[in-house]
Design a protein that fits this description.
By secondary structure, the chain is mainly beta. It has three helices and 15 strands.
């Protein structure tokens, strides 16, 4: 008897027309697109009628053959309504969609404590550069660009670069890389030629000659 009852229910469910249902996600982030579909077969291609309760929150990008693509514009809750015309009649179903603001993107903390570097003269033709803080947490990449366009590089913490009137350093760049996070910071400093080799103006000095002074003095007395 129980088996017969189950068979009757199964037969009735097969004879009943399919109910309208909207399938797809119920949440979407602002800026993202959402695709919804109908599980009900319509009697024609144009027999699907989609509607949204507010086009300020959700914009219909496209809809065809029981499928709709929506673009989330603002946060809020919206109702999506669908009417389907089938061979068995007209069916209506709806679905609430929650539009959420995107999660804030956290800025990557580089945690680099170095903010400057100094220059020290080693000798008349060599300059040394070192960061304002020395730490084992970082890798260092130094680059010196010269007035003739040539470049010298170093991965030392405290590099030394040649510097002379014939090969003047124009720019020094240091890239400090955090070993753990692999993020980096770049510090650049530009130098003028006068910074390295200031020109000293020569002052002409006249020598005092006793004889010349006396001669000029005697000529003056004749007037």
């Amino acid at each position: 008897m129980k088996t017969v009852f189950i068979l009757i229910l199964t037969t009735m469910s097969l004879l009943l027309p399919a109910q309208c249902q909207i399938t797809g996600a119920s949440t979407v982030k602002v800026g993202d697109s959402l695709q919804l579909m109908s599980n009900t077969a319509a009697k024609c291609i144009d027999c699907y009628r989609w509607n949204v309760s507010s086009d300020e929150l959700l914009h219909i990008q496209s809809s065809a053959e029981g499928k709709i693509i929506l673009k989330a514009l603002k946060a809020g809750t919206i109702n999506v309504n669908l009417t389907v015309e089938t061979a068995d009649g007209k069916f209506t179903c709806e679905k609430n969609v929650e539009i959420q603001n995107p999660s804030p993107v956290k800025e990557k903390q580089c945690d680099i404590e170095i903010s400057d570097f100094k220059d020290v003269k080693v000798d008349d033709s060599t300059m040394s550069f070192f960061p304002d803080k020395i730490s084992q947490k970082y890798f260092y990449y130094w680059q010196a660009t010269y007035s003739d366009g040539s470049i010298k590089e170093s991965e030392e913490k405290i590099p030394q670069f040649p510097n002379s009137p014939s090969a003047i350093i124009n720019t020094v760049l240091v890239k400090i890389i955090n070993k753990s996070s692999n993020c980096f910071s770049v510090i650049t400093r530009t130098y003028d030629e006068k910074f390295w080799f200031p020109k000293v103006e020569k002052v002409e000095q006249r020598k005092y000659i006793q004889g010349s002074y006396q001669q000029i003095q005697s000529k003056t007395r004749q007037f």
